[in-house]
Design a protein that fits this description.
By secondary structure, this protein is mostly helical. It has one domain. It contains twelve helices and no strands. The termini are far apart.
Length: about 240
């Protein structure tokens, strides 16, 4: 199953139903673009700087273009790749800052390509995290559900993809699976938290408590959580 495209579809559906989610992604992306810009030499493109074969390199631009309504041709795969690239850089910056170091000096290392299988596995975990966050207050309201499903159905991912997301939206929380996947991988834990934060408005006590428990279960320090929330904004507390 193409989890990168499914993730792209989920992002499209989530941002359509949540202006706050779209704004948080744009906030994070703007900061990441500035960070990347500071790393580029004169005449050197982003793809040349971080690796031309990496979806994340060009994908961030595609993601932000789609969020800001500047792209009508972005594929779901590119949108998913852009999200993974954005989350990867966001996690790197948050983790480095929590250790008192500067994230700018070696930020390009955050784009080191994983194997295709690892990319797919991570995309599935991010997708599950966004779905779990949407269910954190005990339900996915009808409007949000319909927008997400309509986005999935119109994305061209196929009936298997539609059925997968439908099953996950209607099924039980999968927090244990998500937490297990992040063990020994603080960068993935930070990405999961960031994606969860971006997926919802965080306007209920149940959602805030869910995010707090998720961060603790994954071993994220309060400083890393604070860094992520400052990078994405607005303050959700």
């Amino acid at each position: 199953m193409d989890f990168m495209s499914l993730l792209g579809s989920m992002i499209q559906g989530t941002t359509a139903s949540s202006p706050a989610a779209s704004q948080r992604m744009s906030n994070a992306g703007g900061g990441i673009q500035d960070l990347l810009g500071s790393l580029m030499g004169a005449g050197q493109s982003m793809k040349q700087r971080v690796g031309g074969d990496n979806l994340a390199a060009g994908g961030i631009g595609a993601l932000l273009g789609a969020l800001m309504g500047r792209s009508n041709s972005t594929t779901m795969n590119s949108l998913g790749g852009g999200m993974m690239g954005l989350l990867g850089m966001l996690a790197y910056k948050a983790l480095k800052s929590s250790m008192g170091g500067s994230s700018s000096g070696a930020a390009a290392q955050a784009y080191t390509p994983a194997t295709p299988q690892q990319q797919a596995n991570d995309a599935e975990i991010i997708l599950l995290a966004m779905i779990d966050a949407a269910k954190a207050d005990g339900q996915v309201d009808a409007e949000e559900f319909n927008r997400i499903m309509n986005s999935i159905k119109s994305s061209g991912v196929g009936q298997d993809g539609v059925n997968y997301v439908l099953q996950k939206l209607q099924g039980p929380m999968e927090t244990a699976k998500i937490v297990s996947a992040t063990k020994g991988r603080p960068e993935l834990a930070a990405q999961v938290y960031s994606a969860s934060l971006m997926a919802i408005e965080v306007d209920t006590d149940a959602e805030r408590q869910y995010l707090d428990k998720l961060a603790k279960a994954m071993g994220l320090s309060p400083q890393v959580v604070q860094n992520i929330e400052q990078l994405t904004g607005p303050n959700t507390h």
